[in-house]
Amino acid sequence: MIKVGIIGCGYWGPKLIRNFYEIPQSEISIISDLSRERLNTIAQLYGSIATTQDYQQLLDSDVEAVCIATPIRTHYKLVKEALLAGKHVLVEKPLAASTEEALELCILADNLGLTLMVGHTFEYNPAVEKLRSIIQSGELGEIFYIDAARLNLGLFQKDINVLWDLAPHDFSIISFLLDGAEPDFITARGASHIIPNIYDVVFSEAYFPNNVLVNVHVSWLDPCKVRRVTVVGSQKMAVFNDVAEAEKIRIYDKKVTIPQETGTGEFINFTPSYFTGDITIPRIPAAEPLKIECQHFLDCIATGNVPRSSGWVGLKIVRMLEAADRACKAQPVYTHTVTQYRPTLVANGNTGA
Ligand SMILES: NC(=O)c1ccc[n+]([C@@H]2O[C@H](COP(=O)([O-])OP(=O)(O)OC[C@H]3O[C@@H](n4cnc5c(N)ncnc54)[C@H](O)[C@@H]3O)[C@@H](O)[C@H]2O)c1
């Protein structure tokens, strides 16, 4: 039985509370939130659990593990203090608000011999695991590109942009699908339409090893709720549609090949051949990803194993987010009209204009 404390019970925290409450190997002994109102709501549901508005009381208690579900800007301070208090930590995604902060937390956890895990929920999603095993089996052939879209109308955040809010999911899914790979290069474009200086839509492109081109589109300003990852391979294509009630993964036996060229020079016969076969829908075991994640955290504490979404994995995702965010802020300007063009003449060493 591992004693757990939870800091933050806004939107996501109560889901962690429910899961740790239900898992037999854990006992939630204390919950903290700045809001007395939130704590009262939780107390009505779980009367036996102590509550406090001062997280320091939680850190001073005998809990072995702390779960942090507070806004991103608070992660670094809370994780650091929890580790220094000797607690194992599960922190919600993303690990921290910068690479520098994330790296420090990883090193600190390692030096103290404590488990540091990041809540990359999708890495524990049976559908994502299935997609990864399909890719690894070679069924899709060589992976050409991956396209991810996470769109909806809202929920707008005031202190972080849509990239930091939603893209941790897609970057973690994609890196997980590609066996933990990191991109060689990331570029991105973002725009803020509703809240000044807070991007509500971001288009990011990443170039992963083995020429895998990745596109991540995240938006709080879209008419449709979309949570989709498309993987296009040389032999087959697969779509993970998380909005679908059932049949979350479809494998399309579709491909394009170029038959042996005939002819020469201008007369090369270039006719692509399109193949369309069956669509298969693999069975996905029914299990709540967050429950698997919480159980994994407890197992890692008990065994000393490194979590699947360890702090170091979290650091990779923060690096990707930071690179994409920087790319958004350094947007190259496209000149719509050429207003003036005066060639520079160089004659006899003199520059004329
Ligand atoms: N894995 C997922 O799918 C998923 C989904 C949503 C949110 N999240 C993550 O969960 C975290 C929280 O997001 P949310 O949507 O629940 O935010 P929220 O604003 O709804 O809740 C945050 C809560 O933390 C509390 N808090 C802030 N500072 C505190 C402190 N020092 N001590 C105690 N309580 C404090 C606030 O009072 C608030 O109740 C974020 O990191 C977010 O990225 C993850």
Topology, please?
Elements: E1 2-7, H1 13-22, E2 26-32, H2 36-45, E3 50-52, H3 55-60, E4 65-68, H4 75-84, E5 88-92, H5 99-112, E6 116-119, H6 126-137, E7 143-153, H7 162-177, E8 185-191, E9 201-208, E10 212-219, E11 221-233, E12 237-241, E13 249-257, E14 273-280, H8 289-303, H9 311-329, E15 345-347, E16 350-352
Parallel strand pairs: 1-2, 1-4, 2-3, 4-5, 5-6, 7-10
Antiparallel strand pairs: 7-11, 8-9, 9-10, 11-12, 12-13, 13-14, 15-16
Helix pairs in contact: 1-8, 4-5, 5-9, 7-9
This protein binds nicotinamide-adenine-dinucleotide (NAD).
In a nutshell, what does this entry contain?
The chain contains 9 helices and 16 strands. The chain has helices at 13-22, 36-45, 55-60, 75-84, 99-112, 126-137, 162-177, 289-303, 311-329, and strands at 2-7, 26-32, 50-52, 65-68, 88-92, 116-119, 143-153, 185-191, 201-208, 212-219, 221-233, 237-241, 249-257, 273-280, 345-347, 350-352. The longest helix is centred in the C-terminal third of the chain and has 19 residues, at 311-329.
